Amino acid sequence: MHPEPHAELLIRNAGHLVVDTSYEIPGGWVAVRDGAVVAVGAPGDEPTADRVLDAGGRLVTPGLVNTHHHIYQNLTRSFAPAIQGSLFDWLTTLYPVWSALDEEASYVSSYVGMAELLLGGCTTSSDHLYVHPRPGLVDAQIKAATDIGFRFHATRGSMTRSVDDGGLPPREVVQDQDTVLADSERLVGAYHQRGPHAMVQVALAPCSPFSVTRELMVATAELAERLDVRLHTHLAEDHDEDTYCLETYGCRPVEYFESVGWMSDRSWVAHCIFPDEAETARLAAAGVGVAHCPSSNMLIGNGTARVRAMRDLGLPVGLGCDGSASTDHASLWLEARTALLLARFTGGPGALTSRDVLDVATRGSARCLGRDDIGHLRPGASADLVVWDTSEVALAGALTDPVEAWLRCGPSRAWSTVVAGRTLVEEGVPLLPGLPDALRDHRRIAGRLQAVAV
Ligand code: ZN
Questions:
Q1: What pTM did the predictor assign?
Q2: What is the pLDDT of residue 74?
Q3: Across 222-313, where does the E strand assignment appear?
Q4: Distance, CA 325 to ligand 1 centroid (Å)?
Q5: pLDDT reading at 1 higher than 60
Q6: 185: left (phi over 0), alpha (psi -120 to 50) or beta
Q7: How far is the CA of 66 from the centre of ligand 1 (A)?
Q8: Average pLDDT for residues 321-345, to the nearest whole number?
Q9: Has residue 164 got a pLDDT over 80?
Q10: If DSSP codes are grouped into helix, strand and coil, which group holds residue 213?
Q11: SS3 state at 36
Q12: How far is the CA of 235 from the centre of ligand 1 (A)?
């Protein structure tokens, strides 16, 4: 074998390298140039490099990809007045609190939330920001991602149907359709990067069938087609949604989704717990992706997506942590472990393996976001990877399968997280100079918001 050409960064001495779940190299290495993987290989064949990250025999995987989140909700984590009750109860308690969101709150909550994601092994995240009491909130999120160097898929969320129009949210957090569409187009024009290795993309994301009008769903799908960007929303999360759709639109949620022009491979949806078998088959045939959010499903206590059946149908299933006020944490490692446990609890021991779940959290999630350059480490991929410490106490005795051990035992935190070839977590510590100030500001802002409810 000829040595590979000189690299900018070499991650060497992995105990086990997962290039993707069908290509694993014991003792492997990854060479990086210009933020992308240029080569992988077995020990003894390493290229020279400007910088070396010695994995020290630890597990190396592709970075995990988060397909559903509401980062701003970390300002109302574990918020006592909202922790009991149904999804609709929870939302109606929190909408007035979130109406105090402003640009600073959006920036600071994003900065802190992205640090949390990096520590849980996430290198790309989408975010669904659907509360817009003031302008500029998505811009502030993108600024936080850019300041950190985090790969970010913003979604321009929206709500147009307030309680006055038969919807759920109060008037102060909804907008009119023209405002939503104009701001969506502005954000795509200002920030959406096309092609491989994009660091920022923008998708369009009305909140749910019970918070926007039919006209906005239709107009958003048309705008996404014209701008060639992706579509995201919540779908079939709750039985209350079935009732709402039947009473309001005379059909079930998936039928409604289809009738407004969203049944396409441009769309990925959060939760998708309650489609029946025929509806699931239609979603799969259309190529609609599903963001599976197991912790949120379990905390809301209302059923979960049938991940195994969906994957068997070829439907792209990714992993999501959902908002920090419904899940109250944002670790994709923990979310992956929960997905493993929940699948086996509901579907028996043959339902999913740890490799299946790693595939969901990487390539499955990437498919949901419309990307083939992330979620794996084959040459040409973005250099987004995680080193997991396999010498922790919790892994003592786990000798036979490093990938099964990764979800069954731990570690729960990344030892090193690399995004686009830049190390953002090193030996378990985030390399984010703005984090101490952001945490201090976060505490002040969270206190201000939560005082609204008192
Ligand atoms: Zn959600």
A1: 0.97
A2: 95
A3: 231-235, 267-271, 289-292
A4: 10
A5: no
A6: alpha
A7: 12
A8: 91
A9: yes
A10: coil
A11: strand
A12: 9
Distance from residue 245's CA to the centre of ligand 1 (Å):
18
Q: Does 135 have pLDDT greater than 70?
A: yes
**Residues ≥6 apart with Cβ < 8 Å to 86:** 238, 240, 300, 302
Please give the distance, rounded to the nearest whole angstrom, from the Cα atom of residue 303 to the centre of ligand 1: 15
| DSSP designation for 88 | H
Region 382-408 average pLDDT? 96
Say if CB 395 and CB 409 are below 8 A apart. yes
For ligand 1, the distance from its centroid to the CA atom of residue 170, given in whole angstroms, is 18
Which domains are assigned to the chain?
6-62+382-430 (2.30.40.10), 64-368 (3.20.20.140)
Q: Which amino acid does the sequence have at 278?
A: A
How many angstroms is it from 39 CA to the middle of ligand 1? 37
pLDDT in tens, 208-234: 877 899 999 999 999 999 999 999 999
Which structure tokens are listed for 111? 């900065």
Distance 192 CA to ligand 1 centre (A): 22
Residue 289 Cα to chain centre, angstroms? 13
Distance (Å) from CA 293 to ligand 1 centroid:
8
Residues in the chain: 454
Alpha-carbon gap, residue 357 to 338, rounded angstroms: 10
Phi, psi (deg, nearest 5) at residue 170 = -75, 160
52 CA → ligand 1 middle, Å: 39
Question: Which SS3 state, helix, strand or coil, does residue 66 take?
Answer: strand
Per-residue pLDDT reduced to its tens digit, 63-99: 999 999 999 999 999 887 877 777 778 888 898 899 9
Question: CA-to-CA distance for 294 and 96, rounded, in angstroms?
Answer: 27
Cβ within 8 Å of residue 277, ≥6 positions away: none
Tokens of 272: 């998708």
292-293-295 Cα angle (round to 5): 145
Give the count of beta carbons closer than 10 Å to the beta carbon of residue 440: 11
The answer to whether 37 touches 378, Cβ cutoff 8 Å, is yes
